[in-house]
Specification:
Oligomer: single chain
Shape: globular
Structural class: alpha/beta
Order of helices and strands: EHHHHHHEHEEEEHEEHEH
Strand order of the largest sheet: 3-2-1-7-8-9
Distance between the termini: 16 Å
Number of strands: 9
Largest sheet: 6 strands, parallel
Bound molecules: 2'-O-acetyl adenosine-5-diphosphoribose
Number of domains: 1
Strand content: 15-25%
Radius of gyration: 18 Å
Length: 225
């Protein structure tokens, strides 16, 4: 089980949210990432995600994403990501569950189960689903339920090994997932910045960037198996 956040894509050139100079320094999340923001100013929200989507399309998977693909040689790897980018999929990982949505998709405002894959970076005011309702980014905004949470709990409860990387563990319910890991599972966290909370909870802390720390850890696990 690998739980990833924005930090795993930082070395691909996608900004994290809460590091200095991160996305929430530049934008007030209340203006772009809430249902209220969408009600107030959908064009601003669409512009924000169109710019993010453009960045994601330019970015390439880095050594951390690729290491998780290598790990599949000997392990049944399940990734649960808070990221809305598609870098795990483009690297070649088979099992990826997105908790906070996917930026390359749009959903109907009238029926969230109507989801379209976008072919280019722009989603515009006036772009409609087949039933004639405006499309919005397929993103779980602050204040909305996280539809994949129950499945994520089940997956974490069955983990033999848990690897966490690139997340500040600030956003719930996603951050609460770690509490569901079995006591006997081996737990690692890779982050260049201090994450004291989880060190206390039986994690081996690897104070490195994901781009170095994750390939090293994956190689170690492959050698030991
Ligand atoms: P954050 O921006 O909160 O945290 C990024 C984490 O990545 C921090 O702990 C950094 O120290 C770490 N980091 C930075 N560079 C790294 C690197 N090269 N390798 C490894 N780690 C690195 O991002 P998330 O925890 O993912 O939600 O944020 C959670 C959610 O908040 C996001 O999914 C997003 C955001 O608001 C929505 O938009 C709904």
């Amino acid at each position: 089980m690998v739980f990833t956040g924005a930090g795993i894509s930082a070395e691909s050139g996608i900004k994290t949210f809460r590091d200095s100079g991160g996305q929430w320094d530049e934008y007030d999340l209340n203006n772009v990432a809430t249902p209220e923001a969408w009600e107030r100013n959908p064009i601003l929200v669409l512009d924000f995600y169109n710019a993010r989507r453009k960045q994601v399309m330019k970015a390439k998977p880095n050594s951390a994403h690729k290491a998780l693909v290598e790990l599949e040689q000997k392990f049944n790897v399940q990734i649960i990501t808070q990221n809305v980018d598609d870098l795990h999929e483009r690297a070649g990982s088979k099992n990826v569950l997105h908790l906070h949505g996917e930026i390359m998709k749009a959903q109907s405002t009238a029926d969230p189960s109507l989801v379209h894959t976008l072919q280019n970076s722009s989603l515009l005011h006036g772009d409609k689903c087949k039933n004639g309702s405006q499309l919005r980014p397929h993103i779980v905004w602050f204040g909305e339920l996280v539809p994949n949470m129950e499945l994520a709990y089940l997956l974490v409860e069955n983990a033999d090994i848990l690897i966490v990387t690139g997340t500040s563990l600030n956003v719930y319910p996603a951050a609460g997932l770690l509490e569901y890991a079995p006591k006997k599972s081996a737990k690692y966290i890779i982050d260049p910045n201090d994450v004291s909370l989880v060190i206390e909870e039986g994690f081996t802390y690897i104070k490195k960037n994901a781009g170095n720390g994750l390939p090293e850890l994956c190689q170690k696990l492959l050698n030991e198996k």
